[in-house]
Design goal:
With about 550 residues, this protein is α/β, with parallel strands linked by helices. Helix 12 links the parallel strand 13 (about 320) and strand 14. The two termini are about 40 Å apart.
């Protein structure tokens, strides 16, 4: 459906952006416009690796580097509207790469660097990848699947090795391989491609209950939502140092880890390594981080190492925010006791593109609540009849689709996209309730999608990987409540005759899922069953499996296969 902005609200914000002719470029607005606004000499990126080695980039430097990289991509044959997938760790080049692709008028498709080959391939095949930008460490994964991606012409590989040229040598690779540093083209006259506001800038893939992952399409004009929601939620000031711990392969790591903070002129910290309580505290102390945006899973991991928080000076911190799953009240209490700060919970989705509902300065924090909608965002809870639910009543969380960061399509899946809208509302797929003060509380997902450590995980992806193992005939995956990760995958498997589940087979299954999908997709529990409950049409009744495992009523079984 066409997305029509609430112009009364968004028009004043819209005037800040664009080339003055009704055209936009999201990357230009992110990193070039701040230079025009006087931030050129300000530090945009403070990057540090797990060894403690750091690099600093000014706004003007990132503007120039992304322009040169974009010019090189165009010279290498990347065309307007083509999809370029970015499959990299959290190195500075991932930010340059994403901005460069968008400046070229192509569509940036960021991917989580922890994806296995199956997850990587199905997304690149679906998006008809023309280019892939990756690193020396991840290149073998790309080369191995390249023969199955007919659209793929070019692989750009970033390497810190002095013998960069050797990464081009691979007889098995069907695509041209180019060194990242060789792409840069000095072109002072280069200008970012001017795009229509509704043209696609970014595709983020999100998992679903059935079928393959879906590509949520976001337009260039979404920058208004990134800019506004970042400004309103985080209240960043000129001297703030902001750290979003999310990987740029996820929507949080782009919307609020690239586009939002930089369009606001913020200085942003990026730590290359994974979670390590001491390293995280050290990073906050070292760079004077004042605003931290992370996940409840990470906060719970910090809570497990109580001694570490006392070893560092965290006095620079002003505010802490979380995203990805509901924040339990215990986490807020821990932060108040140990850091002296509350934690502001936030809510949004891959599809909404930016924060919609949030706790924020100026509002009382209601523990267990995800806050109230930002001004300009209309959120409601509807009952089964589609009427507004009363205070405390659980219903479907819906949004009025009149804001610029809302996705405009699922890539090549028009019917699925259309089904997300009804009676003038966007259906989030979440169940929620709203109290008398207007605070929203997340209850559950309507479907079987899990949220594991803040990452959406569809059962189909894990089940497909399990079925590739010779020992397994059928599989079903559900999410169970987990104290550490919010939810954890559990797998029910039907083995071939004569095969029994033992420790060795469990380890094999977990290792295979880790390689094929991702580390967070590994089943925490594996259960052998003789038969899976199915409907007469052959659909696995995952809800029944979950209820049985949790000791709950099985509910309606009228469609159960006999």
């Amino acid at each position: 459906m066409p997305l029509i902005l609430n112009e009364d609200f968004w028009l004043p914000i819209e005037k800040k952006f664009g080339f003055g002719n009704g055209r936009y470029n999201l990357a230009f607005e992110t990193i070039d416009r701040p230079c025009l606004d006087g931030f050129g000499d300000k530090t945009a990126l403070l990057w540090v690796n797990y060894k403690g080695e750091e690099k600093k980039f000014k706004y003007s430097e990132l503007s120039s580097l992304s322009n040169d990289f974009s010019a090189g991509l165009v010279g290498a044959g990347l065309k307007k509207g083509e999809r370029a997938f970015i499959y990299m760790e959290k190195v500075p080049e991932v930010y340059i790469g994403i901005l460069g692709v968008i400046k070229a008028g192509a569509i940036a498709c960021p991917l989580f660097s922890g994806f296995g080959k199956n997850a990587l391939a199905e997304r690149m095949i679906d998006g008809e990848a023309a280019f892939v930008i990756t690193t020396d460490f991840l290149r073998d994964e790309v080369v191995e699947i390249s023969k199955n991606i007919g659209s793929l012409r070019t692989i750009v590989v970033h390497s810190d090795r002095s013998d960069r040229h050797t990464i081009k040598d691979d007889a098995n690779c069907k695509a041209e391989v180019i060194c990242f540093n060789d792409i840069y083209t000095k072109n002072p006259s280069f200008k970012p491609c001017e795009m229509q506001p509704d043209e696609c800038a970014v595709i983020h893939y999100t998992s679903g209950t059935t079928g393959k992952p879906k590509g949520a399409v976001h337009r260039h004009m979404a920058i208004m939502g990134h800019y506004y929601s970042t400004r309103e939620t985080f209240a960043l000031e000129s001297d703030d140092v902001y750290w979003c711990t999310a990987d740029p392969g996820w929507i949080t790591g782009t919307s609020h880890g690239i586009f939002g903070p930089w369009s606001n002129g913020a200085t942003m910290v990026v730590y290359e390594g994974g979670f390590d309580a001491s390293k995280w505290y050290e990073t906050i102390e070292r760079f004077g981080v004042s605003v931290l945006y992370t996940s409840p899973t990470a906060i719970r991991q910090l809570m497990k190492e109580p001694a570490a928080v006392k070893k560092y000076d965290l006095g620079s911190l002003k505010r802490i925010y979380s995203v990805g799953e509901p924040l339990n009240p215990e986490a807020i209490e821990w932060s108040l006791r140990n850091i002296g700060l509350t934690i502001y919970d936030t809510w949004f989705q891959t599809e909404t593109g930016a924060i919609m509902i949030t706790n924020r300065p100026g509002l009382d924090v209601r523990k267990g609540s995800m806050g109230t909608p930002l001004p300009g965002i209309t959120a409601m809870v509807l009952d089964e009849k589609g009427n507004p639910a009363g205070p405390g009543a659980i219903g479907d969380l819906v949004l009025k689709p009149d804001f610029p960061s809302l996705f405009t399509a699922y890539w090549k899946k028009e019917e699925i996209y259309a089904a997300r809208f009804r009676n003038g509302f966007y259906l989030t797929g979440d169940r929620a309730c709203r109290d008398e003060k207007g605070y929203f509380r997340f209850v559950s997902r309507n479907d079987d999608v899990m949220k594991v450590s803040g990452h959406l995980l569809g059962p189909f992806e894990v089940e497909s990987a399990l079925l590739e193992l010779d020992e397994i005939v059928e599989s079903a995956v559900i999410g169970l409540p987990d104290e550490a990760t919010g939810e954890a995958p559990m797998a029910f498997v039907v083995f071939k005759s004569g095969i029994a589940l033992d420790r060795k087979l469990e380890m094999k299954i977990r290792a295979y899922v880790r390689t094929k999908v991702a580390s967070y997709a590994v089943p925490k529990k594996i259960k052998a069953v003789e038969k899976l409950p199915k409907t007469r049409s052959g659909k696995i009744m995952r809800r029944m499996l979950k209820n049985l495992e949790l000791g709950l009523e099985t509910g309606d079984t009228s469609t159960l296969e006999e």
